[in-house]
């Protein structure tokens, strides 16, 4: 039972210290992970909130622009409808042409969104144009809106594609209606051109205040107006945006990668209620997250400082744990390992020896007449004697498997792994000679110096049925045999023979405590 308790004690002791270090390290990792996780969560919320806030602003802007575009086109359609009534009622005779010309020029001057107005006959020839008094020779039969009305009997307004004026080259979109002859046949087309420059200027003013990009899109994907201005050749919606507008034509918020510049954008769009047009307001992800990046930088600096402090405190805690562990396994007087450390070491070495088949030896050492030395010179001198003997023993250890410890009182133990009894006895003799070489005067023996007696025992795997405790007991028995044989010698377990006493060295006296 005692042997089992001893084994459990030395097996569990390293685990206790290891567990303490592991818990300290675990707490450090958990604290750092919690801090980093919390910051990531908070920054992600800010990132997501920025996108949501931008979508709200973009949605409001897109709706506002859609409303203005809707009103502009409704105004243009109202003009077209009134002109259709006049033409159908008054015809296109010389007097009617004059009245229509003056009416159209005054309306165009009063409405900045209107570029020009015109009336053409059933062959596409211009009858009246607001930009020129005599439009003779101008024919518009190739225009898409003219072909539409000639082949459709309905009287509904039609929004045509982007056109270039034959008079001044301006870009515009057309709002047109068909007018009929008194017999109900196709009489011609009334057209009002809404200037795209008007939308461009409106978008530029809005873009200067809010940034980002603002577009007016036709349902066929054509970009009619865009702020900031597009490079040449970029006139169609492409990529993710085109597909999204096809799938969800009415309006909403979206994130997409622009087919024009490859930039990731977030925004909102609104389709006009009565016309095949859409307003789109968007902003690049980089611009949206500019405040987030600034916050990320400061949070990163603060977080790094906090983590450094936590790591520093944790490192100091682990260092303190290591110091406590070292102190728990070290003899404070001599600096050698203590008995606890020795017992754990010999358990591991005997188990390793059993697996590898290599011998392991133990040397038990006891200083001769140490009680007399203490009684004569006092305990401070006795402590100094123990320190000097310990240094002498430690100084003789050269091999990796050699390990010395203070076993208790004036006793020392040396573990020699991978070494048989003959070599261990030789090492013990070397250490005895080193201690005698200290020439410390022994109490009450003026012709003698401080010496020790030693016992050596070896565990040979496959030949000895032994364990750590039995090995120490055999070495201790050999130690007592050396003492019984007269001290100042080395004895080997299994034999009562001991080495002869050594010659007296020149004496050195320690200072008396008295």
Provide a descriptive summary of the structure in words.
- There is one protein chain.
- This protein has 514 residues and is an alpha+beta fold.
- It has helices at 2-90, 94-110, 144-151, 196-210, 239-247, 285-288, 290-328, 339-356, 370-377, 379-395, 421-436, 468-484; strands at residues 114-121, 126-129, 158-159, 163-164, 171-180, 186-195, 213-218, 223-227, 251-257, 264-271, 277-284, 360-367, 402-408, 411-417, 441-442, 445-449, 452-459, 490-492.
- Helices cover 50% and strands 21% of the residues.
- The strands form four sheets. Strands 1, 2, 3, 4, 5 and 6 form a six-stranded antiparallel sheet that branches. Strands 8-7-11-10-9 form a five-stranded antiparallel sheet, with helices on both faces. It has a five-stranded mixed sheet with strand order 13-14-12-17-18, sandwiched between helices.
- Helix 10 (379-395) packs across helix 11 (421-436).
- It is rod-shaped, with a radius of gyration of 52 Å.
- The relative contact order is 0.09.
- The model is unreliable at 1-13, 495-499 and 503-514 (pLDDT under 50).
List the helices and strands and how they pair.
Elements: H1 2-90, H2 94-110, E1 114-121, E2 126-129, H3 144-151, E3 158-159, E4 163-164, E5 171-180, E6 186-195, H4 196-210, E7 213-218, E8 223-227, H5 239-247, E9 251-257, E10 264-271, E11 277-284, H6 285-288, H7 290-328, H8 339-356, E12 360-367, H9 370-377, H10 379-395, E13 402-408, E14 411-417, H11 421-436, E15 441-442, E16 445-449, E17 452-459, H12 468-484, E18 490-492
Parallel strand pairs: 17-18
Antiparallel strand pairs: 1-2, 1-6, 3-5, 4-5, 5-6, 7-8, 7-11, 9-10, 10-11, 12-14, 12-17, 13-14, 15-16
Helix pairs in contact: 1-7, 1-8, 9-10, 10-11
């Amino acid at each position: 039972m005692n042997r089992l308790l001893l084994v459990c004690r030395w097996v569990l002791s390293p685990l206790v210290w290891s567990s303490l270090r592991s818990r300290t390290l675990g707490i450090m990792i958990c604290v750092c992970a919690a801090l980093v996780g919390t910051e990531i969560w908070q920054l992600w919320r800010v990132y997501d909130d920025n996108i949501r806030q931008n979508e709200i602003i973009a949605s409001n802007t897109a709706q506002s622009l859609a409303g203005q575009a809707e009103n502009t086109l409704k105004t243009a359609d109202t003009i077209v409808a009134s002109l259709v009534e006049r033409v159908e009622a008054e015809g296109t005779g010389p007097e009617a042409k004059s009245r229509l010309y003056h009416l159209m020029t005054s309306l165009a001057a009063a409405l900045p969104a209107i570029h020009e107005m015109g009336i053409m006959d059933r062959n596409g020839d211009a009858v009246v144009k607001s930009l020129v008094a005599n439009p003779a020779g101008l024919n518009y039969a190739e225009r898409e809106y003219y072909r539409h009305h000639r082949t459709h009997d309905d009287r509904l307004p039609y929004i045509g594609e982007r056109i270039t004026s034959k008079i001044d080259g301006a870009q515009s979109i057309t709002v047109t209606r068909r007018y009929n002859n008194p017999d109900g046949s196709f009489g011609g087309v009334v057209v009002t051109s809404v200037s795209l420059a008007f939308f461009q200027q409106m978008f530029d003013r809005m873009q200067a205040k809010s940034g980002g990009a603002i577009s007016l899109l036709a349902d066929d994907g054509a970009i009619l107006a865009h702020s900031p201005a597009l490079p040449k050749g970029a006139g169609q919606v492409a990529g993710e945006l085109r597909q999204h507008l096809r799938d969800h034509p009415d309006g909403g918020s979206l994130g997409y990668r622009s087919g024009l510049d490859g930039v990731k954008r977030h925004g909102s769009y609104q389709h006009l209620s009565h016309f095949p047009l859409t307003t789109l307001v968007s902003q690049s992800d980089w611009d949206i997250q500019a405040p987030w990046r600034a916050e990320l930088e400061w949070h990163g600096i603060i977080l790094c400082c906090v983590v450094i402090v936590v790591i520093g405190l944790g490192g100091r805690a682990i260092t303190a744990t290591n110091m406590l562990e070292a102190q728990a396994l070290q003899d404070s007087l001599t600096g050698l390992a203590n008995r606890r450390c020795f017992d754990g070491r010999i358990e591991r070495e005997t188990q390793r020896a059993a697996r590898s088949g290599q011998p392991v030896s133990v040397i038990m050492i006891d200083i001769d007449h140490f009680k007399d030395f203490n009684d004569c010179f006092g305990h401070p001198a006795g402590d100094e004697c123990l320190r000097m003997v310990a240094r002498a023993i430690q100084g003789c250890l050269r091999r990796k498997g050699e390990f010395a410890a203070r076993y208790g009182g004036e006793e020392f133990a040396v573990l020699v792994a991978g070494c048989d009894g003959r070599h261990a006895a030789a090492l013990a003799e070397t250490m005895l000679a080193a201690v005698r070489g200290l020439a410390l005067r022994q109490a009450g023996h003026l012709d003698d110096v401080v010496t020790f007696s030693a016992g050596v025992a070896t565990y040979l795997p496959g030949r000895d049925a032994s364990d750590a405790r039995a090995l120490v007991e055999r070495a201790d028995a050999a130690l007592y045999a050396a003492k019984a044989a007269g001290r100042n010698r080395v004895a080997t377990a299994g034999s009562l023979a001991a080495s002869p006493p050594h010659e007296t060295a020149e004496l050195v006296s320690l200072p008396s405590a008295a």
